[in-house]
Design goal:
Elements lengths: L3 H18 L26 H19 L9 H8 L7 H15 L29 H9 L5 H15 L7 H14 L3 H15 L10 H15 L3
Length: 230
C-alpha cells in the first residue's frame, strides 16, 4: 500500500489538475491582503478554489516534504458541498476532495487540528515579545515564492508586523524560513530580494524596505488620474 505521504501528494496533484481543467486555477498570485483575516476556508477574502490553490495544496505539500503530521480529521467535501452545490463543472473536484478526506481520516490520528480553514487562519493577536511563531507565518512562507515586485514587498511588510511584537530570539528561525522560500522562487529578482530580507531579519532589521509615504501617494495620484481623467 502507498504510504499516507505519497497518497496525499498524489491526490493534491489530482486536485490541482482538476482545478486547471475547469479553469479555476489562477496563473497570478493573490495580493497579500487576501491572506489577512481570510476566515474559514478563505471565505472572507477569496473563493474556495483560490483557498484550495493557495492555502490547502501548498500546506499538504509542505507536510509531505517535511514528513510532518497530518490532521486527524478532514471535512473538505462537506464544505465543498455547500459552496459547489449548484456548480455543474465541479462534480469531480468534489469527489477528489472526498477522497482526500478519506485518506486523512483513515490514517493514524497524529495531530490535534482538523483540515479546515481554522488550521490555516491567522491566529489571535500575539503577545508582545512572544517566542511562539504564529502559524500564519508558515502559511505565508509557503506562498511567498509566488510574489514579485511590489506584491512581494507588500508581503514582506506582513513579516515586519509580526517581527515588531515577537521576541528577538525567533529572528534566526524566520530568517531561515525566508531563505528556504528564496530557493523555491522561479524569479531571480525575487530570490535576491527575499535573501536580502532574510539577512536583514537575522541582523535585527526589517524584512521589507522602509515605507515611503510620499512616493506611495505620488503613485496613487498617477493611477487615480489614469482611471478618472476628469
Amino acid at each position: 500500500m502507498l504510504d499516507i505521504y505519497t497518497s496525499t501528494a498524489t491526490k493534491a496533484k489530482e486536485i490541482e489538475t482538476e482545478l486547471k481543467r475547469i479553469n479555476r486555477w489562477s496563473a497570478e498570485p493573490l495580493p497579500a491582503k487576501k491572506f489577512e483575516n481570510m476566515g474559514a476556508f478563505g471565505s472572507n477574502t477569496m473563493s474556495f478554489e483560490e483557498w484550495l490553490q493557495f492555502i490547502l495544496i501548498p500546506r499538504i505539500r509542505a507536510i509531505v516534504e517535511e514528513k510532518g503530521k497530518f490532521p486527524k480529521s478532514s471535512m473538505l467535501a462537506t464544505y465543498a458541498t455547500r459552496v459547489l452545490d449548484v456548480d455543474g463543472e465541479a462534480g469531480h473536484l468534489h469527489d477528489l476532495l472526498l477522497e482526500l478526506d478519506k485518506l486523512i481520516n483513515e490514517s493514524e490520528p497524529v495531530v490535534e487540528q482538523p483540515v479546515q480553514a481554522e488550521s490555516f487562519s491567522p491566529p489571535q493577536p500575539v503577545v508582545y515579545d512572544s517566542t511562539d511563531i504564529p502559524p500564519v507565518i508558515f502559511t505565508l512562507i509557503e506562498v511567498l515564492p509566488q510574489f514579485e515586485g511590489e506584491d512581494l514587498e507588500s508581503q514582506l511588510q506582513t513579516y515586519d508586523t509580526f517581527l515588531s511584537i515577537l521576541s528577538l530570539s525567533v529572528r534566526p528561525i524566520i530568517s531561515n524560513l525566508l531563505q528556504e522560500a528564496a530557493q523555491k522562487t522561479s524569479s531571480e529578482a525575487s530570490k535576491v530580494r527575499i535573501l536580502e530580507a532574510a539577512r536583514s531579519v537575522a541582523s535585527g532589521g526589517r524584512a521589507a524596505a522602509p515605507y515611503n509615504h510620499e512616493e506611495a501617494m505620488k503613485k496613487y495620484r498617477i493611477e487615480h488620474k489614469k482611471s478618472y481623467p476628469k
